Amino acid sequence: PAHNALVELQDMNKLDFVISQNVDNLHYKSGIKLEKLAELHGNMTLMKCLQCNKKMTFEDAGWDQKKWGKGYRTSRIRKGQPTCHNCGGRLINSIVNFGDPLPQEELRNSIMHTEKCDVFLVIGSSLVVYPAAEMPAIAYRAGAKLIIINKGDTPYDNMAYWALY
């Protein structure tokens, strides 16, 4: 339901950007436009090139998970596995595992949109995983109203214009 509500806000031109830590592809699947979406922890349906950062589906990459595995950054390279159609670089799963670097472009876009928003809406996050957990504070310091909708308390409830549990 939250994904669909965000799409409605987008369709009414009331949503500028979505910052997500989810890897389930539900934001994109529900209709959030790619240019309005930063998936800080990757997307389980996408591969990315380590060289040019191009993203593509497993299918578009020609990646067979049964044959070459999940394609994590730490996975051993196997003979014959596909490479980037764009530059020939190594393809890896776009999911960010512990120890992996965050996608820098996604992080930069997140911070840029956070600093210029007038309302920052948090939906279903404990706000304890950084650097995403810092975004509400950045928005608040920039003058945005913070609205939190969550199952439980968060470290930012005292800053919230409105907190719903």
UniProtKB/TrEMBL annotation:
Positions of transmembrane segments: none
Database matches in PROSITE patterns: SIRTUIN (PS50305)
Keyword Zinc: no
InterPro entries, per the entry: DHS-like_NAD/FAD-binding_dom, NAD-dep_sirtuin_deacylases, Sirtuin, Ssirtuin_cat_dom
Alphabetized GO MF terms: histone deacetylase activity, NAD-dependent; NAD+ binding
Domain Deacetylase sirtuin-type intervals: 1-165
Protein name (Swiss-Prot/TrEMBL): Deacetylase sirtuin-type domain-containing protein
Native organism: marine sediment metagenome
Record lineage: unclassified sequences, metagenomes, ecological metagenomes
